[in-house]
Amino acid sequence: MPGETNPIVPEEYLRERYFEHKVDSRADEIISMVGKEASQPIKYTHELWFSKAKTMLPFLLSTSLGIEEVNTIDVAATIDILWTLSVVVDDIIDADEMRRAKPAAWKIYGKESTYSSAEKCLRATLGHVAKTISPEAAIKCKESVEAGMRSIEEHKNFGFECTREELEQNYIKRDAFFSEAPMSMLATIYPDKESKLRSAGIALETYYLGGQIGNDLDDLFGGAGRTKRFSDVKSGLVTIPLRLMWSDMEELDREKFMMVFGKGELSVQDEVMIDSLLEKYRVFEKSMDLIKEKYSQASETMGNFLDEKQNSVFNTLCAKQLEKFQGYKS
């Protein structure tokens, strides 16, 4: 029809900006610093990953604040590599053999070699940040990576006596290297923009917090397939949806649930019982309400920085995520 415009596809828009501003070239330069052999597992995983939201949302936000593109590209490339490294290491730790329908890097290059490559690439990335942005930025970057790694272990120690807010802070630490950290890195050389950069960082934190809660729902409702369903319950990991349920549960139901929480393996009867509790306490609906709240908060703040088209891209990204999460129960 005349006058119609094609709907924005967020992933495609962000990838176009990624290549347009040559963030890929900068990332390749940094990865290549570790040498041809050591860079192979990292390059292999880097090329598998389609989505560039984690890389380009901080780029768009910082560019909107008038920060020079040479700096925003360096920060975007840094996030791009750190996300790739996190995927490489997670696959080793979780013994995941496939990544985007292809063998995980460690299955091709070996665990020791792949892990060693990730360590070398992290050192090269931090060195690049120190040289091109500032030594203080490299420290903040390193601290965010370490905080994220600690948060994984800290999460395992949470019991149901924790608050939802404490869990949220744990999730935020895990995502810091692609939310708060990029903004704080830039603030080391743009101190006059620190307040606005911090506000933009909080918007990213809030957005990714919603996504983490969505991942929790995936585990409970089998969004990505039922083979790994209830892995959090089996391992005794307290997540935000489970904490929401716990706060509403009657004592008898708590006792029943604790008989299977952390059990390791679940029988069919166990799974039926868990499903009945999830339904009884409306865990899916309450979690979705919380995700919508987080996305709404993030969108409101993003609107203070992004132009009309970019804001539409972000809101569409949120809508697509909500649609995906909603499908977990359909």
What's the number of extended β-strand segments?
Answer: 2
Neighbour order of strands in the largest sheet: 1-2
Elements, N to C (H/E) = HHHHHEEHHHHHHHHHHHH
What is the mean predicted local confidence, pLDDT? 94
**Largest beta-sheet details:** 2 strands, antiparallel
Number of domains: 2
Measured as a percent range, the helix fraction is over 70%
**Can you tell me the CATH class of the largest domain?**
Mainly Alpha
Number of helices in the DSSP assignment: 17
Q: Which homologous superfamily in CATH is the superfamily of the largest domain?
A: Farnesyl Diphosphate Synthase
Using only CA atoms, what is the Rg?
A: 21 Å
| CATH architecture heading of the largest domain | Orthogonal Bundle
What is the structural class?
mainly alpha
Strand content: under 5%
The 3D shape can be described as globular
User: What is the CATH topology classification name of the largest domain?
Assistant: Farnesyl Diphosphate Synthase
- C-alpha termini separation: 33 Å
Protein name: Polyprenyl synthetase
GO molecular function: metal ion binding; prenyltransferase activity
Pfam families: polyprenyl_synt
Family: Belongs to the FPP/GGPP synthase family.
